[in-house]
Amino acid sequence: MNYIIKTDKGKYRKENQDNASISFLGDWSLVVLCDGMGGHYGGSLCSFKTIDFLFDFFQKRFDKNINFDDKKSINKWFNAALSFIKKSLKKIANDNNDYEEMGTTLTAALVFNLNKETYIFNIGDSRAYAYNGLLHQVTIDQNLLHQLVDKQNVDIEIAKLHPDANKLVSCLGPNKTMKCESFLLKGEENLKYLLLTSDGVHDYIEKPVIEQILQDKKLSIELKCQKIINVAKKNASKDNLTVLLLEF
C-alpha cells in the first residue's frame, strides 16, 4: 500500500490551515485530512492538534487485534476518540481564550490493510472518494447547501444561490456543533484508490476530471496528486489545497 500527500497554501491565503497525515498500527492504517476554519483564529492549530490527538488516541487506545468487521466496536472507539479530541481542544481554549472559536473539518479513514475494509468518518466539508475504475464520492458535505437540499427539499440550483451555501453546519472545535457521519467500504468492492481532499481542491475541479486523472496509467500517484492540485489552482481556487491519495 502506497500513499502520497500533497498540500499547497494556494495563491490567496496567508497561511496553510490544512493538515493531512497517516498512522500505522499492526494491520491497520489511519489516514486523516483536516481543514482548519478560515476566518477564525487558530484554524491551523486546530487542524494540526486534531490529527495529533487522534493519532495519539489511535496508538494508545485502539485494539489492533480487533475483528475487522466489528463495526459496533470500531464506531464506539472512534466516538471515544472524538470525545478525547474535543476535551483536549477545550483545554487549549480554556488556557487561551483566543482559541475559543477555532474549528476544523475532519475526514478520516480507518483501513484494515489485509482486505481493504475501510471505515470512513466525516465532520464538515472535506471529502473522501473511493476509486475502483470509476470515482465515487463517499462523504456528504455538512454545509448549508446540503442541509437545504436534503432536509428542506430546496432545488440544488436554487440552494447554490444562497449567500451562505458553503457555511458549515458541523465542524470539530472546543465550542462547535458536531455531527460525525460514518461510512463503510467493503473489502470486496475492489478499491484501487482512496482519495481525501479539502474544499480548496474539490470546489474547483469537477469530479469527472479527477476521475480522468486517476485513470491515467502513465502518471505516478505523486503526479496524479500534483495534477489534481494544479488543475484546481488553474481554476482559481481561493483556498488552501490538500490531497491525500492512498493506493491499495
From TrEMBL:
PROSITE patterns recorded: PPM_2 (PS51746)
SUPFAM superfamilies: PP2C-like
Residue ranges occupied by any PPM-type phosphatase domain in the UniProt entry: 2-248
InterPro entries listed in its UniProt record: PPM-type-like_dom_sf (IPR036457), PPM-type_phosphatase-like_dom (IPR001932)
Pfam annotation, one family: PP2C_2
Name the record gives this protein: Protein phosphatase
Organism expressing this protein natively: Metamycoplasma canadense
Phylogenetic lineage: Bacteria, Bacillati, Mycoplasmatota, Mycoplasmoidales, Metamycoplasmataceae
